[in-house]
Amino acid sequence: MRTITTDDLAAKWPRAALVDVRGADEYATVHIPGSISIPLDELPGRLKDVPNSTTVYVLCGSGKRSTQAGALLAGRGYDVVNVAGGITEWYRGGHPVNYAPPPADAPARGRWRSLADRLRGRRTGSP
What we know:
By secondary structure, this protein is α/β, with parallel strands linked by helices. Helix content is 33%, strand content 17%.
């Protein structure tokens, strides 16, 4: 499967078809504007929601889940590219994100809570 850096993806964004395969709670906290949320465990049942007339760029937090998603999509005939480093590298590269702070009682995983905390006050992209 092909891969792309977040900087190279930024040159294609916002026209690129982005599928974010992180969990819904992760996506709700921070995501790339214009991306589609299809959690990895829902992907097999939601293939109709994945654009099939263009290259699909899959991402997750760092690359593990998007690699799995990419393999599944490629096996179904999609032209798919994995985004190396996922949302973490996208953010580190200074690219736009939509951010909503998680509720105080949300069971956010440690690194996502940490990323969310760093995003507070950061300029974000349009919804």
